[in-house]
Amino acid sequence: MKLKRIAATTIAAMALMACSAGSGAGTARADAPQERAAAPADSFSADTAYALVVAQTDMGPRTPGSEAGARCAGWIASRLRAAGADTVEMQRGSMRRWDGQVLPVCNVLASFNSGAPRRVLLVAHYDTRPWADMEADPARRMQPIPGANDGASGVAVILEIARCIGRTAPRAGVDVLLVDAEDSGYSEEIEPGLNPGNDTWCLGTQMWAERDPYATGVKPAYAILLDMVGGAGAQFHREQFSDVAAARVVDKIWAEAAALGYGSTFVNSRGGAVVDDHIYVNRAGIPAADIIENMNPATGTFPPTWHTHDDNAANIDRTTLERVGKTVLSLIYKEK
Ligand SMILES: [Zn+2]
Q1: Residue 159's pLDDT is what?
Q2: From the CA of 169, how far away is ligand 1's center (Å)?
Q3: For residue 57, how far is its CA from the centre of ligand 1 (angstroms)?
Q4: Structural domain boundaries enclosing 196
Q5: What's the 262 CA to ligand 1 centre distance in angstroms?
Q6: pTM of this prediction?
Q7: For the chain, what is the HEC assignment?
Q8: The CATH number of the domain where 97 resides is what?
Q9: Where does the pLDDT of residue 37 fall: very low under 50, low under 70, confident under 90, or very high at 90 and above?
Q10: pLDDT for 23 beyond 50
């Protein structure tokens, strides 16, 4: 994903494109009395989530079309089946990258409690960036990154949530979308001078959206995207596109985190605007919020490991994974 520095008018225009049913002004009331989370959210294991990050980075970079990427997709599918998903599907196709290369794309879709009328969609990308654009050493910029935070962290948290809901079923249904080819987008550092626009990112989610995923079946009430949710000491601010298209979803997540005592991690103030998979989920008519570290104090944007070779498992923080996982899981158990 990439950070956008854009005018408020652009954000408003994007909000109009996002035919969101869930948009509405409002701020999370972190101090409001909240029902304490149901105990099942405590079943989320930070150690298991961390091990699931390591399992992915051990495969090597999961760039689109790579052998490691295919192995990761198969591993994700088998974990979802083992967790008890009603359906697991590999959605295959191809998408054209900004430089003309055609990428094979394989998204992994799953559904838990598929008959439930109220549903939540969880989204993350499992692919990793083919380049280390932000690496200090220019000689290493064209090498793929490990993608422990940028990719593996979101997948790990969702797979651990899947294990938990497979053991103790929530009343709501949960759909899972783990996409390929999010992170092959254009950047100036790779090839200066092109201006191909924002749609060079999130190719897997664009392919999913183009196929009208809920033409039949129950459309989820909302979606939560997890991206870079494992940084050391990470703080999550309200991402701007989420706030415009799905403010009520952002409110719910941040209020749930506050109720769990994670208010210092989920900071209830405006963060950056990020081009990420949630934009296309919103355009598909599902209000979607992005949990992403986008105001790191050292950089002002993403964490310092972003798109570098330091985005490895050693820089993943179990506490961050746990706080995100328990917040989302607790929210899921409250849905009915
Ligand atoms: Zn990225």
Answers
A1: 98
A2: 32
A3: 15
A4: 2-334
A5: 25
A6: 0.91
A7: CEEECCCHHHHHHHHHHCCCCCCCCCCCCCCCCCCCCCHHHHHCCHHHHHHHHHHHHCCCCCCCCCHHHHHHHHHHHHHHHHHCCCEEEEEEEEEECCCCCEEEEEEEEEEECCCCCCEEEEEEECCCCCCCCCCCCHHHCCCCCCCHHHHHHHHHHHHHHHHHHHHCCCCCEEEEEEECCCCCCCCCCCCCCCCCCHHHCCHHHHHHHHCCCCCCCCCCCEEEEEECCCECCCCEEECHHHHHHCHHHHHHHHHHHHHCCCCCCEEEEECCEEECCHHHHHHCCCCEEEEECCCCCCCCCCCCCCCCCCCCHHHECHHHHHHHHHHHHHHHHHCC
A8: 3.40.630.10
A9: very low
A10: no
